[in-house]
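Support request from a user on the community tier.

User writes: "When I paste my structure tokens into the form, the page sometimes reloads and wipes my input. The last time it worked, I copied everything first. Here is what I submitted, just in case something in the input itself triggers the reload:"
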């Protein structure tokens, strides 16, 4: 049975039952149909004195085409916590339509561990992504309008840092020329599009505490350099109020439910290989006030989403994570061990042992933050007894705590042992401490990150990165937190460097820029693409709808 078929058979509760179970007054609710609602961020004033629950961070090994099941495990763990009598909410990012129409398919979990209604969540949802796109593109339009009308800010059109966005995979928009057709259309210049999830507006939305904070962050966006070489902020264009107005609903978290009616808050969607890769600060803060255990998911592998959650987001938001769950699967580990995708269903012990190194590094990295860590092994029917025994022996050899998870097939029942162990670990005192100190210099932060997380002997800046860093230092932005933009497929900067990481490899930095509104420096390692393309046969070819609004092809 497909994920969509399982979802259609689920018995959903009216959204009123879900928010009432959390003790939320109706005055804070804006319903979007029968099964979706937005929760006003104003509720935080009422909840401010309430004690926070425990925060459980779910991350994973480096992603593979074999599947790790991170979102599925996050949902299943939250359901299992409720099953054993604990109050839990799962907080997730919203799916981007681009990857859904491309290669990824749906992004709402799978099997008997889903958030629902999955069709709505995967397709437009409450319009948050569109609001981000419109707000971002308004700022783009205002920039070119200012240039057309005398360029009073003396914007250097070669150094504009603000592209256009669209929530679709479209490689043809990676490099464009705008304002063709004569002087009435403005001054022609090169431009480009990025996907909406990569927009700084998305990152800002996910970090802002309220509308005033949102507007202040928008004002601090660095849109360009002037002809004199100075940074120009969006504040000088006087449009933060207009952008915030477009985001007035998007700033409020979205409430839905799991297949077992566990409350789920899904809000925001920055990519973890470009920005910080987690749902909104508002959503997590709200969930911590409304439940005993919040299960939140970080994007991609532990070297990306989890590192950023622990080194950047938690210090910014004041979070103290109580446990980290690393999701892995035997199939994915065999892929990391060099086994081809076509042979992943076959027993292959040697590849499993080689690929285990990826899990081992991520586990060691997470332990460095002083938080209890556990591995959730996402089970597949093709996992052999000997492969499971080898996995168990490798975990024992390296002192890795793990539990099996079968939430895809069994729902909450398949995650009870994992949930019980998580409760046990979260009850211990968290000695959480970020690896990166805000007082460190740029060089100290980079050296710490590249050695401790990416296992490099050192890092090297390209000539372009050196040029940018010099200007960043001159303008006093070099003490900002660092967000590494790199491949998700390897712990290193090189997507092809899986488990053959040389002891003396150099972490290559190609570029960097300032996300002034989000409040971090983006350091680009190994080149990163902000506009994905569609595969030869995109998933869009399999999606269809009939006259009764029955959808097929989402998974």
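"...and here is what came back when it finally went through:"
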């Amino acid at each position: 049975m497909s994920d969509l078929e399982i979802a259609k058979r689920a018995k959903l509760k009216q959204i009123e039952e879900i928010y009432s179970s959390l003790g939320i007054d109706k005055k804070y609710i804006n319903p979007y149909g029968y099964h979706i609602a937005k929760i006003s961020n104003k509720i935080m004033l009422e909840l401010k004195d309430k004690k926070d629950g425990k925060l459980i961070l779910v991350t994973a090994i480096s992603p593979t085409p074999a599947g790790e099941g991170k979102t599925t495990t996050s949902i299943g763990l939250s359901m299992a916590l409720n099953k054993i009598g604990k109050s839990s909410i799962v907080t997730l990012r919203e799916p981007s339509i681009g990857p859904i129409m491309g290669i990824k398919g749906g992004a709402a979990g799978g099997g008997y561990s889903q958030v629902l209604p999955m069709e709505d969540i995967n397709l437009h949802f409450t319009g948050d992504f569109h609001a981000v796109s419109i707000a971002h593109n308004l700022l783009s339009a205002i920039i070119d309008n200012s240039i057309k009308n005398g360029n009073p800010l003396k914007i250097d059109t070669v150094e504009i840092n603000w592209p256009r966005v669209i929530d679709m995979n479209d490689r043809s928009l990676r490099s464009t020329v705008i304002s063709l057709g004569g002087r009435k259309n403005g001054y022609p210049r090169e431009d480009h599009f990025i996907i909406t999830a990569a927009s700084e507006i998305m990152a800002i939305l996910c970090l802002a505490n309220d509308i005033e904070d949102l507007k202040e962050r928008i004002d601090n966006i660095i849109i360009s350099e002037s002809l004199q070489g100075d940074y120009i902020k969006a504040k000088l264009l006087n449009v933060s109020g207009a952008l915030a107005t477009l985001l007035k609903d998007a700033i409020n978290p979205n409430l839905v439910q799991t297949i077992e009616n566990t409350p789920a808050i899904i809000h925001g969607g920055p990519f973890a290989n470009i920005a910080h890769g987690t749902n909104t600060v508002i959503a997590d803060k709200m969930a911590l006030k409304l439940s005993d255990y919040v299960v939140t998911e970080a994007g991609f592998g532990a070297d990306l989403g989890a590192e950023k959650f622990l080194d950047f987001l938690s210090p910014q938001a004041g979070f103290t994570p109580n446990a980290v769950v690393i999701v892995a699967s035997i199939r994915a580990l065999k892929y990391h061990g060099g086994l081809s995708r076509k042979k992943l269903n076959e027993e292959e012990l040697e590849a499993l042992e080689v690929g285990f190194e990826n899990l081992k590094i991520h586990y060691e990295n997470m332990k460095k933050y002083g938080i209890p860590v556990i591995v959730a092994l996402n089970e597949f029917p093709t996992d052999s007894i000997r492969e499971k025994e080898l996995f168990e022996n490798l975990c024992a050899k390296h002192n890795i705590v793990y539990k099996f998870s079968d939430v895809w097939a069994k729902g909450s029942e398949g995650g009870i042992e994992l949930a019980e162990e998580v409760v046990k670990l979260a009850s211990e005192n968290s000695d959480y401490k970020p690896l990166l100190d805000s007082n460190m210099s740029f060089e100290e932060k980079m050296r710490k990150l590249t050695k401790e997380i990416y296992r490099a002997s050192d890092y090297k800046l390209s000539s372009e990165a050196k040029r940018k860093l010099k200007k960043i230092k001159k303008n006093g932005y070099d003490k900002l937190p660092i967000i590494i933009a790199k491949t998700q497929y390897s712990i290193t900067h090189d997507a092809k460097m899986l488990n053959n990481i040389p002891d003396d490899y150099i972490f290559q930095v190609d570029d960097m820029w300032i996300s002034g509104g989000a409040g971090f420096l983006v350091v680009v390692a190994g080149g990163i693409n902000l506009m994905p393309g569609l595969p030869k046969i995109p998933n869009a070819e399999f999606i269809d709808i009939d006259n009764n609004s029955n959808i097929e092809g989402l998974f």
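Agent notes: The reload is a front-end session timeout and is unrelated to the input. Residues 128-148 form the longest helix (21 residues). DSSP finds 19 helices and 24 strands in the chain. Escalated to web team.
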